[in-house]
Amino acid sequence: MTSFPASAIVAEAIFGGFVALTVAGALLAALATRILRSVCGLAVCSLGLAGLYTFLHSPFLGLMQILIYIGAVCVTIVFAIMLAETEESAGRESRRRRLAWGGTALAVSGCVFWGVARLGWDGVRAAPASRATDGSVGAIGVSLLTTHGLAFELISLVLLVAILGALLVARTGRH
Amino acid sequence: MTALPFHDQPRVYFLVAAFLLAVGIFGLIRRRTLVGMLIGGELMMAGASLNVMVWNRFTAPDPAVGQVLVLFLMGLAAAEVAILLSIIIAVYRNYRSIKAGVLDEMKG
């Protein structure tokens, strides 16, 4: 135990803050009417997730989450928004249709949430008898270069093909 | 179980992951533009990553495996975003709109 008396409460408060950030960001991303606010919601959600990863004993992944999601994914989406007209105008859709789609989406996502949450809540989980590694950055690096070497190379190939494909697709139809 | 602090209970994380998945599905169904649907898909990927990390933290014999898996997931999500955004740009160039309802013809 640590000597600082309120450290447990402080840790709980920080954890609650990260959970709230994640939930609020996800809600903002799904419900905002302007698409730029939705992207900001995704960024806030990623920030909260990075905190949750840190609480799950992997601060390296938290940093990667910030770097990749906020630094790369959100910025790229903002670029696409600037290049294309993305405002969702609700005027053309009739009110009944909008309500029907919203109800369908709410029902489907509610069912999924209920089912998955129940699975997670009731599942039997046994802690492992012993840990092979400590899960540090060094252990990740060693396993990337030994056990998961082939997957590492394949993922770099996927990224290369994705970049080339993106360039090719965005180039067609250009005058 | 109740004596543990919240950040050492897997249930809290599972609830958050399920919530992210559900919100992503909601956004995917509800949004009318391609960018909005892409954001919904990203939320679902984030929920899946969080789920993998929870299993990795609480039950995996080797904690490095789950982290490597989530790193690969992030790489795949980035590649997916790159491809999808280029498709969105191409669609906008042809239709002058990226609403999903406008895309009603195919040519190949």
Class of chain B, according to the CATH hierarchy?
Answer: Mainly Alpha
Q: Indicate how many domains the architecture of chain A comprises.
A: 2
The helix fraction of chain A, in percent, is: over 70%
Derived structural class of chain B: mainly alpha
Number of strands of chain A: 0
In sequence order, what are the helices and strands of chain B, one letter per element? HHH
Shape of chain A: extended
Q: Which spans of chain A of ≥5 residues are poorly predicted at pLDDT below 50?
A: none
DSSP helix fraction of chain B: over 70%
Please outline the major beta sheet of chain B.
Answer: none
In CATH, the topology of the largest domain in chain A is named Four Helix Bundle (Hemerythrin (Met), subunit A)
Number of helices of chain B: 3
Number of strands of chain B: 0
- What is the top-level CATH class of the largest domain in chain A? Mainly Alpha
| CATH architecture group name of chain B | Orthogonal Bundle
N to C succession of SSEs of chain A: HHHHHH
Coarse shape of chain B: elongated
Number of domains of chain B: 1
The rounded distance between the terminal residues' Cα atoms of chain A is: 67 Å
Radius of gyration of chain A: 21 Å
Low-confidence stretches of chain B: none
